[in-house]
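If you are new to this repository, start here. Below is one unmodified record pulled from the training split, so you can see the exact layout before writing a loader.
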Amino acid sequence: MLILMFTGFFTGLIFTGFFTGFTIICNNSFWEIVKIDVEEDQDIAVIQNLGSDTIIIAGGTATNGMYRDKDKYQPYISMSFDNGKSWQKKTDFDCNEVDELHYKDGVILVSAFKYDRDYKFIRDGEWFFFKYKISDNTWENLELPEGREGWIMGIIDEDTYIFRESGESKDYADYPSYLKTNDGGKTWTEHSLPHSLQMDGYRDMFSMESLQGNKMWGIRTHNARPDDNDTTSFQSLVSIDINTWEIIDNIILGKRITVEGESRLKNTHRIADIKADGETLYLLGEDEVKGNMGYVWKIGVNEKEVKVQDSFDLKDKQNPSRLFIHKDKLIVNYIDISTFFPTEILLYKNFSEKSWHQEMFPSLIYSFMSFNNGVLMGIAQGNEIYYKQF
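And here is the target side for that same chain:
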């Protein structure tokens, strides 16, 4: 078993299979809570099972609130190839905090941050990226073109990665640009959205990007300009070919509407998450015009028709967050922010069922959550994690 330990915080987590060799400390008939042995001053921030017997555990030195001493808070990586009997530690990262991790096809991409000063409430510094190949156990620095900054969007295959450029390195307003490498980061090409998505006057925004095969899906939000006889504000679901960077699909979702007493336009389809299942897309969101209702919309890519797959009640200050699809199951996570400490709620059902099942997440959880191969998993507290096999 290969176990890697990182400091810092992650998003986009993955987990497959069942835990073995861990201690179950609680079973409330739905969630399993397990405790993992780590060093005394270490917290777990993320765990990922990469398939076979390769597992990544992420954590860091316990800290006092948001404070980070830039001279003392250093990441490390410990690797075990024999299920924890012996360890190899890597500490020579020139950064303070690991922020994100992506994995696919035996490649791990890590984004890390180095502080210009001690981090309390202001985060100033520089981003670094690292690449690890499991097959040959090698780490490399991954350098973007000079003067460019961004964040990892995803891995297409062993040598092809896509980054989204950040506003600090390019003044693109609401029109993002992307960096792509086909040779593992040796060379990069820059790509912009098709011209038809870039309308003058900042009237269009493109967000919620999601890589699915050779397509990048995203939500186009268009703002009307009556002076140009452009009277309709709308949202559409757009896919772009990441090889040609041309539009493949452009599926209208709904209008953006002025509601009396509101200072901004309301969306009939405010999207929180996008998931693909073959040639079918599922969108999680809410209708801001009607209110008090969350939706899972189903879209056949060939038919380009938007249908309601399911709906669920939402109260004020409850927001849809994540959507997971597994075989014949729909799984929805939404957040209640009506109290000082937000709470996470889980809904799940078979496609054929009329009613949803509801479960509360364990208390004191982090917002990190993963789903892969029917396993939903997240960080509970300290060295505890929760999971559920669907």
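Two things worth knowing about this chain: The chain is about 0% helix and 55% strand. Residues 106 and 134 are 6 Å apart (CA to CA).
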